[in-house]
Amino acid sequence: HSLRNIDELCASIVRSHRETSQYRVEELQALRWKLFSREEIQAYQSKSVDEMWQHCAIRLTEAVQYVVEFAKHIPGFRMLSQNDQIALLKTGSMEVVLVRMSRFFNTENNTVFFDGKFAGTEVFKSLACGDLITAVFDFAHGMCALKLTEQQIALFSALVLINADRPCLEDKGRVQRVQRSVEFGLTHILHRDNQESLMHKLYQRVAVLRSLCSLHMEKLRWFSQRYPLTAHSLFPPLYKELFA
Ligand SMILES: CCS(=O)(=O)c1ccc(CC(=O)Nc2nc(-c3ccccc3)c(C(=O)c3ccccc3CC(C)C)s2)cc1
Question: Which residue in 42, 48, 219, 60 sits closest to 123, CA to CA?
């Protein structure tokens, strides 16, 4: 890679992250202290399990759609076969959503952006999966502690997505080449920011992401068994395609 290449690669990934980020950091900074009232929290907590799951699945699917757009603009992603693109999105899109969401986590009052305001864990009580919720909040805390810049988040998100170790890839070699160029881009950005020490911390975050996403799948399996009608006919098709 000549430096020019790497700078172009980083610039296009950062641009794509910015254009597909759904909400801007400055936009949500202004909302950080917009919390749900007691009545609004009561309303969420009085939703049935399947109602709240459906509500969240719709929100999550919306966030995933922006990640699909992000992926399409990562140099090299579109050269992969359709099946490999789907395989990478199937396992990586939730991970990127979690990385993105952790930008809008308020560590001072332990709230996450949800439905236009900032919500504490109590808002998600009726999902009946407290361990998943706690794990998502803990992950977001861990990500905030790293104080990543938007550029670092953009390259890290691309690296989370382009992973040659994902199961059932047709052309692992090709994915490896794209993955290596993105790795090179992230190393370049961290070197430029004089923060090489972040690299191994980011790989530790990837391991937490893996376990978090398998917990999400486990809860979804539990939910689909208990509420087959909601899961099969009321969840967004993309959510079922990617996670079920
Ligand atoms: C991702 C792009 S973004 O611009 O950063 C953005 C864009 C849009 C938003 C608003 C938003 O949709 N927030 C959601 N919050 C949570 C949530 C929920 C429980 C704890 C913590 C956050 C959503 C979920 O549905 C979720 C997320 C992770 C794991 C599990 C679930 C619930 C399961 C049952 C589907 S959706 C936030 C941030």
Answer: 42
At 24, phi and psi to the nearest 5?
A: -90, 150
Q: In this structure, are residues 97 and 65 in contact, taking their beta carbons and an 8 Å threshold?
A: no
Cα(34)–Cα(68) distance, rounded to whole angstroms?
29
Class of residue 37 by CB neighbours under 10 A (exposed 0-12, middle 13-18, buried 19+): exposed
Q: Does the C-beta of 127 come closer than 6 Å to ligand 1?
A: yes
DSSP string, 183-228: HHHHHHHHHHTT-TTHHHHHHHHHHHHHHHHHHHHHHHHHHHHH-H
What is the rounded CA–CA span in Å between residue 146 and residue 92?
A: 21
ipTM topping 0.85: yes
**Cα atoms in the Cβ-side hemisphere of radius 13 Å centred on 15:** 10
Distance of alpha carbon 29 from alpha carbon 15, whole angstroms: 20
Which of ligand 1's atoms lies nearest the C-alpha of 127? 34
Find the mean pLDDT for residues 149-158: 98
The per-residue pLDDT for range 189-218, each reduced to its tens digit, is: 999 999 999 999 999 999 999 999 999 999
Q: Please indicate whether residue 133, judged by its CB atom, sits closer than 6 Å to ligand 1.
A: yes
Radius of gyration of the chain (CA): 18
Q: What's the whole-model pTM score?
A: 0.95
